Amino acid sequence: MANVIELSNLTYSYPGAQAPTLKNISVDIEQGDFLAIVGNNGCGKSTFCKTLNGLIPQFISGEFSGTVNACGLNTLESDIGVLAQKVGYVYQDFENQIVRPTVLDDASYACLNYAMPDYLDRGRRALERCGLTGKEQDFIWQLSGGQTHLLALAGAVSLKPEVLILDEPIAQLDPMHADRIYGVLRQLNQQYGKTIIVIEHHTEYIADYCKHVMLMKDGQVQWTLPTREALCRVEELQDCNIFPPQVTIAAHRMQQQGALSPAVHLPTTVDEGRDVFTPKAQPTWLSFVPTPVMGEPVVEFDHVGVSYRTVKGDPHQVYRDLNLTIRRGEKIALIGSNGAGKSTLMKLMVGLLKPSSGDVRLNGSSIRSVKAEALSRQVSMVYQNPEDMFIKDSIGKDIAYAMEVRGYPDTQARTQQLLQRFRLEALQDRDGRLLSGGQMRRASLAIGIALNPGILLLDEPTANLDIATRKEIMRTLSDVKATTETVVIATHDMQLVCEWADRIIVLCQGQVVADGNRDQVFGNRDVVAQVGIRPPEIFSMGQALCPQSLCYTIDEFLNCFTGRSGAYACG
Fold first, then answer.
1. Cα gap 460→484, rounded to integer Å
2. So what's the pLDDT on residue 315?
């Protein structure tokens, strides 16, 4: 099959950078491929993809050498507007691609800009292919996060490009919307022959949908392999801070321990794992018993109602008569589908939103009439989109800013301490908006804890992160316990929930539908079905083998299961 992308000796450095971000890359991508690009944060994945449609170096300047040919066009010599019709791109911050007020208007806008007479028909067809038929006249703010991502994709699809690139397409989505995004991509690939390129950390989705995997490290392409072969390179992936699927890691560890024959092909999906694992003869099903937290209330929601005015129709009700208490010392995970009210709950706590009815009390005092700035020493929020926290021209200045305006003592020393803790020293003079996704996350977390708040709120803190950065954030959450007593995280990362939280609050359509430890939540099949929660893959693997098992980590799974060398009854 012909190549749709060809790179030869590509080297690129950002302006002022001491070393190249991309180093002498030569690689081909076949037409019709579904390719996942993986690698640790900062390895050059996003930079690589931005060379494929000419953004680098035509829009983002720097030192560029070598050649990039996309769909038969030299990206250095071709007009960037022409390239956009050949290589569509949905960015990590996809909301910035939404520019018009209604759905059809936005989906057809790119075609209108190119003066295509059939721009509305192209927009409608793109919406149909992306599963948004019936939403044409809706305002964009009526869409869920997943639907908004699909709209950004539809805007790219409307130009009928040969190649579609998506940077972290499901980083902030619940499982239902994530499945929908990848279902659309599969259809575009298989039925319409589009070449799909995704930058992805979720290897379980790579296993289910992608044909090939490209590994990048230190600005170079290490290899491109068929998906199954790639994901079975467990040690190499982990060395590059990539999580292989949990079922693959479990089988690999069993092989290392002699509990599984080296001749067995490692599974990469739960279905494949059924033929590999079996319960031990006398398994011990683990149960999680959290240490009870008896601290005094720090945040109280008392009959809280929240609604938004809309341009048309009735006000949108997010919460109605919400009653909830958060106590000092708790580690809480807020989970639920996109639009369930997780971010709204956090904005109420920091005073960015005021309840339509009822009251929110912080440390026993109502915050209804208190300005958000006055609450910042007590409670701090790290936003879902980290770039929203950058207001200066360098992350060093951004970290120092909140301390400086409040007269915080030893601001410079504290700033340097935070830069060191989050491995940001070499980046302290860089504009935060130009960093990689993982670097942005680390910088935003440093800004969030700069004032040592008693309550820390994190909205999707591990989205877009590799293993090293994710583990670093987990360690940091433990480190800040001395000064930040209470932490609340809104997340779709179920591994984080199961490994870290001692209390899980499940939200659905503005209601608390479950509140307890992980057994009480994930062991309740009605709640899991109602909310569309997807537990960690290793939990699903255990349940597929024995419905009584409650294994949330690979270690727990290995304690209960072994490689299939005989059949055991599940008692």
1. 18
2. 72
